[in-house]
Amino acid sequence: MKRRWVLGAAVAAVLLSGNTGAMAQEALGDNCGYAYVFQEPLAGNTAEQTIVKGLERAEADFGITIDIIDGTGLSGLGDNLRAAASKGCYLAIGTAFFASGEILTQVARDYPKQRFFIEGGVATGPNVTSYAQANQEGTYVAGAMAATMSDGKPIGIITGDDSPPLKAFSAGFIAGAKSVDPDITVLVNSVGSFMDPAKTGAVALSQASKGATLIFPAAGSNLQVYFLGEQHGYKTIASDLTDYSNAMPRKPALGFVVASAEDQTNYAILKQYVEDTHETASKALGLRDGVFSIPFVTDNGSEDFDLPQKVIDGGKKAFDDIVSGKVTVPRS
Fold it and tell me: How many CB atoms lie within 10 A of CB 195?
């Protein structure tokens, strides 16, 4: 049975006990499963709500208990992590996202006997594992499907910036497309922001004017790309499941979805802990770990998509080539 903490009570219990740091950790020894400490209140954060679904599935499938600790904002994250670590009984304590990394590094240093992990961020220490998604593997499949679907016409990808993770995102897409059609034109642009929907839409229109028939946006504010597609003759490949859910009521011109899923990623992380195969420093989870959602390739698809069989077959071949080790996807 899952136990949910009342956050204030949890912190107060630690403070009132007078136990802090490693001393408290050593004082308690019972096994109370796992804990997951969120940064923001769950009620207003769809990404965190998605993570909870993965944790609940892990509890059901693996027979484990996960204490879910609601967030109160970034400023309270450190106290909540310390409250959990002070119990001294968790097999591992997890958290998520880039902004949490530095705080987790500090807390992990004070509780050297406690295992921690972070998903979607980087923290350091001998007792911390940082998990990321090998996005280039998913985008390789996207590129192969897009090239098959475009029948030789140009395709495009739009990223928020040129950081190494997003360069890997683009590199996978280009490599997948070229694996199907070495001569295909792949338009690549960076918006320079993750919060500029107007500019992202303008970049999409520029790619459409150059003949792009499928556009894959990963610029943080992608909805304009979806909504301009039908009028300007291109389809969008969804890279974010939240965007996809928000856009679908307006029935945009949609090609397909290739997106990493927070629930599946955190499920895969807990699976590694249960099977004692977790890494000690960092780990990129990819297609083998089941962290991507790709219709008709990783699941049975849905009526949202009307994909020709050759596109599905192209996606399955790209997927199999990576999982079998036949293809190693470049990151730049």
Answer: 11
Residue 145: closest CA among 155, 133, 159, 134: 155
CA separation for the pair 84, 37 (Å, rounded): 8
Buried b (16+ CB within 10 A) or exposed e, 1-37: eeeebebeebbeebeeeebeebebbeeeeeeeebbbb
Within 13 Å, how many C-alpha atoms sit on residue 104's CB side?
31
Strands (E) in 186-263, as ranges, are: 186-190, 214-218, 235-238, 254-257, 259-260
CA dist 59 and 80 (Å) reads 22
Distance CA 51, CA 69 (A): 12
Specify whether the backbone of 20 is left (phi greater than 0), alpha (psi in -120 to 50) or beta.
Answer: beta
Reported as a single tens digit per residue, the pLDDT across 11-69 is 444 443 444 444 344 444 578 999 999 998 998 777 888 899 999 999 999 999 999 99
Amino acid at 302: S
Type of residue at 198: A
pTM, two decimals, is 0.82
How far apart, in whole angstroms, are the C-alpha atoms of residue 32 and residue 73?
25
b/e map of 58-85 (b: 16 or more CB within 10 Å)? bbeebebbbbbbbbbeeebbbbbbbbbb
**Spatial separation of the C-alpha atoms in residues 81 and 259, rounded to whole Å:** 29
Q: Render pLDDT for 63-105 as a digit per residue (tens, 0 to 9).
A: 999 999 999 899 999 999 999 999 999 999 999 988 899 999 9
R_g (Cα) of the chain, nearest Å: 21
Distance between start and end Cα atoms, the chain: 45
Q: Residue type at 291?
A: V
Question: How many residues are present in the chain?
Answer: 332
